[in-house]
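step: validate -> pass
step: tokenize input -> pass
step: predict -> running
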Amino acid sequence: MTDIRAAVAGERADLASLLSGLSAEDWDKPTLCKGWRVRETVAHITMPFRLSMPRFVLGLLQARGNLDRFADRYARRTAAELSAAELTECLRQNLNHPWKPPGGGYQGALSHDVIHGLDITVALGIDRVVPPDRMRLILDDVKPRQLKYFGVDLSGVQLRATDLDWTHGTGTPLTGSAQDLLLVLCGRTLPAGHLSGPAAARFTVGVTR
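step: predict -> pass
step: emit ->
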């Protein structure tokens, strides 16, 4: 438990440091999350730190129980209300926040922060490498329900990491760094140059969610 909590705090600290160095123009650039700029994505990352359970339930009800719709509305509203500095400071002040996604545990919290951090860095062309020990914690926790949630069809495809001893599935090879393959698992389509192998074209179509 200590190791995973330290990994979560470390990831948030690294991301806060990276965000503090972005230009004003960068904050308005798109990420791998369709329709979200950097500021909406950071608003989403920090949502659990600002939102009480009653407000969350109310927002979910207003979104007719659709979590994605609620998250989108909240991210857009918060991004309009808070500055880049305020969003970054919110992350920095909550490095050790105990939030866990329902049913996801602290591995889920780490996945949440790493994935959305990659949504930002990959889209901006920032060559940031997530520490291998954090990637291992996430990849070792991959479950079929996660693929179902993101609507990912990996039938006939085997993911092969080039920087970790890790594979997923069977079939036509799709190779890339562990963090790029994590994005594939989460339904992201990556910019050219991140993936290779016969199946690469299926997952390389610009920036989208």
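step: describe -> The first strand starts at residue 157 and ends at 161.
step: cleanup -> pass
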